[in-house]
């Protein structure tokens, strides 16, 4: 089917006999959320110049497509980006930073003593803590920051246009927010702390190298007593 730029163009093309059919996807607000439709316009085969217009409800299909996209790009537990999205977005930002000589930093953070949390409160409690930490990251991040669960209790934040000083300040704000967060669990609350490693992009550095520097800084934060930021 030939591509057209607008609904009006598609309808006009069918009515003028330049196209045999035209299809248009659109949405309308509904009491239970957005409802999606597929409109089809077909010319009749009797050469009368008349057309048949049909509207098919495809809300379930669109919701299924959205769910598949979410599953492909989102960490199922925390709702943050997964490693695939992190890698793709980071490579774009790194290329831009190198090209225009812009600052860019990365935070790698780890929930302290996470095995002890799991042992004390069970895996359900551990999952709640990871969800709580993800929310702390959202609350302390800025528009444009790339937040992702890296694996297990490790998380990564890519911070475009951010110097090492700015990244360290943001990491400290996140650390303090984590320290004061209360995670509801079975009528009580779980507290946790995080250790954070910060690294900043240097000329010619790859994303893998930048992550390695952030990971090394995270190791120093944990080795020096945890619940702290290291650069």
SSE layout:
Blueprint: H1 7-15, E1 21-30, E2 33-43, E3 51-57, H2 59-73, H3 83-100, E4 104-111, H4 114-140, E5 146-151, E6 154-160, H5 164-180, E7 183-185, E8 188-190, E9 194-200, H6 207-223, E10 229-230
Parallel strand pairs: 9-10
Antiparallel strand pairs: 1-2, 2-3, 4-6, 4-9, 5-6, 7-8
Helix pairs in contact: 4-5
Features:
231 residues, alpha+beta, Double Stranded RNA Binding Domain, Alpha-Beta Plaits, 2 domains, three-stranded antiparallel β-sheet, 6 helices, 10 strands, 28% strand
Question: What's the total helix number?
Answer: 6
Instruction: Quickly name the level 1 CATH class of the largest domain.
Output: Alpha Beta
What is the averaged pLDDT score?
91
Q: Under the CATH scheme, which architecture of the largest domain would be assigned?
A: 2-Layer Sandwich
Question: What does the largest sheet look like?
Answer: 5 strands, mixed
List the uncertain runs.
none
CATH homologous superfamily assignment of the largest domain: Reverse transcriptase/Diguanylate cyclase domain
**Domain module count:** 2
Task: Provide structural commentary.
Helix content is 45%, strand content 28%. The longest helix has 27 residues, at 114-140. It has 2 domains: 7-67, Double Stranded RNA Binding Domain; 75-230, Alpha-Beta Plaits (2-Layer Sandwich), CATH 3.30.70.270. The mean pLDDT is 91. The protein contains 6 helices and 10 strands; from the N terminus they run H-E-E-E-H-H-E-H-E-E-H-E-E-E-H-E. Helix 4 (114-140) packs across helix 5. By secondary structure, it is α+β, with helices and mostly antiparallel strands. The strands form 3 sheets. The protein has a 5-stranded mixed sheet. The relative contact order is 0.12.
């Amino acid at each position: 089917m030939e591509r057209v730029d607008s609904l009006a163009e598609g309808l006009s093309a069918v009515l003028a006999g330049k196209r045999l059919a035209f299809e248009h996807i659109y949405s309308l607000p509904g009491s239970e959320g957005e409802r999606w439709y597929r409109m089809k316009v077909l010319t009749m085969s009797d050469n009368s110049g008349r057309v048949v217009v049909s509207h098919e409800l495809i809300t379930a299909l669109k919701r299924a497509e959205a769910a598949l996209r979410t599953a492909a790009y989102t960490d199922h537990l925390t709702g943050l980006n997964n490693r695939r999205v992190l890698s793709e977005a980071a490579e774009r930002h790194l290329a831009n930073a190198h090209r225009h000589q812009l600052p860019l930093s990365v935070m790698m953070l780890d929930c302290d003593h996470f095995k002890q949390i799991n042992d004390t409160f069970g895996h359900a409690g551990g999952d709640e803590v990871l969800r709580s930490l993800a929310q702390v990251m959202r609350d302390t991040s800025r528009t444009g920051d790339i937040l992702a669960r890296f694996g297990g209790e490790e998380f990564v934040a890519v911070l475009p246009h951010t110097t090492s000083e700015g990244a360290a300040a943001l990491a400290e704000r996140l650390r303090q927010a984590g320290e004061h967060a209360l995670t509801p669990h079975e009528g009580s609350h779980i507290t946790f702390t995080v250790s954070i490693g910060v690294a900043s992009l240097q000329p010619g550095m790859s994303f893998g190298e930048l992550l390695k520097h952030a990971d090394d800084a995270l190791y120093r934060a944990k080795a020096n007593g945890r619940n702290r930021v290291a650069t």
